[in-house]
Amino acid sequence: MRKPMMIVLTTLALAGTASGLALAHGKGGDNDERQQRHQEKRLEHMSEKLGLSDEQRAQMKELMAAPADRKADRDEKRDLQRQIRELDTAAADYNQRLDGLIEQAQQQLGEQIRERQAKHQAMQEILTDEQEKKLAEMTNKRMDKMEHHGRHGGGRDKS
Question: Can you tell me the mean pLDDT for 26-42?
């Protein structure tokens, strides 16, 4: 009983964090224009830092513009969270239903990871080896900075 509960709590925490971040960025409304400006700003920054050619820039723009159905993902996560909250812990089939919901959460996360990795792979085909190295350095630097500020589970060093 303890292990399934820990899995549920972990799943809820991950899904809740992702949903919260998505809502914070989307502010709950239609933000296509805002997202478009953000993508253009990211592309401009990457172009400048990586020294992208015009052709690479066009390919990256196309890749970044590929539709990501984030709203549908958010709605699926919310529905799954609702189903988990509404589970009757006293029901005879509680563990079966819980396992099914955990499986759904794992599938959703797996799909998101696959989509992200497919974009990453496509990006590697566009960039030169030198540009890939530079992008990896930029990404690591950004992640270190986020961890230092307590984001993405890095927490602050309290020593």
Answer: 72
State how far the alpha carbon of 76 is from the alpha carbons of 21, 99, 128, in Å.
15, 17, 37
Measured distance CA(149)–CA(99) in Å, rounded: 35
CA atoms of 14 and 10, how far apart (whole Å): 6
**Which residues are within 8 A (CB) of 144 and not within 5 positions of it... i.e. 6 or more apart?**
none
Task: Choose between 3 and 92: higher pLDDT.
Answer: 92
CA distances from 8 to 74, 87, 101 (A): 18, 11, 9
pLDDT tens per residue, range 38-85: 888 988 998 999 999 999 999 998 888 776 667 777 888 899 999 999
From residue 121, alpha-carbon distances to 78, 105, 115, 126, 127 in Å are 29, 24, 10, 9, 10
Quick check: 149 and 60 in contact, CB under 8 A? no
User: Hey, what amino acid is at 80?
Assistant: L
Q: What share of the chain is helix, strand, coil (3-state, %, to 5)?
A: 80, 0, 20
**pLDDT, position 36:** 80
Higher pLDDT, 1 or 118: 118
- Residue 10 amino acid letter: T
The one-letter amino acid at 126:
I
